[in-house]
Amino acid sequence: MVDRHEGLTGGLTNYGDREFARYLRRSFAKSMGYTDASLDKPIVGICYTESGFNNCHRHFPELLEAVKRGVLAAGALPVPFPVISLGEVFLSPTSMQFRNLMAMDVEEMIRAQPMDSVILMGGCDKTVPALLMGAASAGKPAVLLVAGPMMTGRHKGERLGACTDCRRFWGQYRGGTIDEAEINQVEGRLAVTAGTCAVMGTASTMALIGETLGMCLPDTAAIPAVHADRLRAAEETGALAARLVGSNQTPDKIVTAASVENAMRVLLAVSGSTNALIHLTAIAGRLGIDVDLDHFNRLSDETPVVVNLKPVGQGYMEDFHTAGGLEGVLRAIAPLLDLNAVDITGQSMAERLAKPLSDPIDRTYIRSAEDPIERAGGLIALNGSLAPGGAVLKRAAATPGLLEHEGRAVVFSSLDDLAARIDDPDLDVNADDILVLQNAGPKSPSGMPEAGYLPIPKKLARQGVKDMVRISDARMSGTAFGTIVLHVTPEAALGGPLALVCNGDRIRLSARDKRIDLLVDEAELARRKVEFRPDADVPARGYQALYRRSVLPATLGCDFDFLRAASSTGAEGEPS
Ligand code: FES
Ligand code: MG
Questions:
Q1: Is residue 505 a contact partner of residue 408, using CB atoms and an 8 Å limit?
Q2: What is the ipTM of this complex?
Q3: Which of 269, 461, 493, 574 counts the most CB atoms within 10 A of its CB?
Q4: How far apart are the first and last CA of the chain?
């Protein structure tokens, strides 16, 4: 049972008369029908993100009931409260622009309201990062409960899962191999249940990272949204949050250099979403822990890819769950993990791995380190004259023949320019060229959308071209694939080398050397740099103005400069 709690009197503002403030707060709480017995209990806040604009969270009412059951049975009072919910596909210009807004909402509402511990309910792409960022800064004991992945649909005997298959069918439609009637049919069969995207996209990757960081109950990240086990996990999460009351298990005790490194290992081993690197950097940055790209590459060189899921491999998250889930991955890379990391239940990684497995691991979806999908390098960071501050490539999702490639740049100066010209039959483009998109980074008007997956120009798609080297300062959906260089830093809007690329320049990608180079001599680049004019059209008011002023580069997690903690290396605040 719980003790040492502040309950409803936590954080009371009293203006000199504490008893009056207490009496007033209790009387308003009583208007909600609570008895004294309820109001005397410790309070477990529940950050609740159900929204009519968030399909992934549509099962949250049922999940919330289970959470409350767990909290109540363990002797605390569950109190849900709304925070911003980010439904990935409904936000414009991009959900990424609102992650920090949600993180601020989460942080301030956890801090401002009387709760002794908090449950973070989220799942869809940016919600888990925002919840963890906010909770890390708020500093109260917190536990994450994720939505869980969607189940797959069926089309002509084939399984479909959002949203890797979305892209495959759209590619076929663009290429003219399926017709409008069929694409309309597919549209209704891609996302068929509650839960997050069914593949190893950003939401799935972040759920696994949340568990690896130690912020969820073990073995719960991959349980499908609609599975009864998820309701049981919710009930147990409620009980755990009640047990956390009065403890000193605040997020800074859980999210440590050790658990962050383990999370990077898992990101690499599952060949997860490139977005997760940004989010993990932002979460760690809230606690003064740096995620450095050279360090990431060293880990990448030694961490095998062991998960065979779309978008890179075969299966879906429901397969991953039954194959052994995160536990299977942790066992496969156990010798690489920092065993001292401790999770929210108080268990160390060493203790977790010492427990016997309840089921054998299904090697179709989760391989061993001895028989991996790839020996190393599922994701790599790139350096070079085009990205002196760094860039990211999901090597495992690339076409092997394009990993060492030199080609002619075909440049698009903005998203509008891309939309206007990519399908122009007169566009001067060949399959060997490199598509370059400028001005889609964090400081651009679009706020770093998932535009890095540039479409293959229609005339090339019709010839059967499936992949080309594509480079931008944008992000890519975790469910996408291709030879795609992302997060180029410094970004074009800040006048980075990416802004200076012209049509016809030669660019060389070498995944082996982890380099991306613009083969233009320095004198010519210096000349172009003089001509560079930053976008003068900056938003003058509101959140958009705050965002543009404060957002940090991808290499610092795109957090706001005033939200990152001071780090040991002083990396906060300075664009690199
Ligand atoms: Fe919510 Fe993909 S749309 S996780
Ligand atoms: Mg996504």
A1: yes
A2: 0.90
A3: 269
A4: 49
